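Worked example

This section walks through a single chain of length 271. The input is the sequence exactly as stored; nothing has been trimmed or padded.
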Amino acid sequence: MIHLKSEEEIELIKLSAQVLGKAHAEVARLIRPGITTKELDTVAEEFIRDNGGIPSFKGYNGSFPASLCISVNEVVVHGIPNKYELKDGDIVSIDCGVKLKGYHSDSAYTYPVGEIAPEARQLLVRTKQSLYAGIERATEGNRVGDIGFAIQTYVEGFGYSVVRELVGHGVGRHLHEDPQVPNYGKRGQGPRLRERMVIAIEPMINLGKRNIVQERDGWTIRTTDRKPSAHFEHTVAIRKGKAEILTTFQYIEEVTANTSMMIETNEATIV
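Given that input, the structure is written out below as tokens.
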């Protein structure tokens, strides 16, 4: 069942999203060769709890052991933080959720570590841009398939592939709610978008083929061809004419401005 949020509920999600955006920035300022993914997770959890929130991911389904999903290179999503030290040339997706005053927010950002290959940087730029292409279609009266179609056609135009087994979702009192929001689809198909629906749009885009596999830990998802994958995500509210982006990259981009970590798009000022 799709739950339309009240304006008061949307404001609570935005409050959660402020803590989330600032937690992302605390992580962003530490990303460099030599830091472990576990260290990044510890910083995020401490910041979230110090600001009155609860990490949405920790203990998810009774078993996820961390506050962040940290996915490096060919890992698409759900990477478990550990002793791995980031290396020059890596790309690393940081996915985080925050529960505050009973409501969740969810967002993800993929960073370059040091100097990365030009094809990897293009993957990051275009995946981020595909997120905004999807958000442009997230308006009242459109359908979920319009979002997926916009993302799919944009990235496939560059020869990339869209992960199909993992999708965006509704967000609210629960981290994952209806509807599912695939990053592929056909225009005019799927549930109709109505004002005050709140959804997470999260393109997961592979440099190589779309095929994925789950590792033995039961969480980590990687590409079968071991080529890089990128992931960007915003939580948005459906509105008439233009979606309202509830999460923010503003704090991340204040940290990464004028550095090699900055991922510019045609809409670099959007937060």
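What to look for: Residues 7-28 form the longest helix (22 residues).
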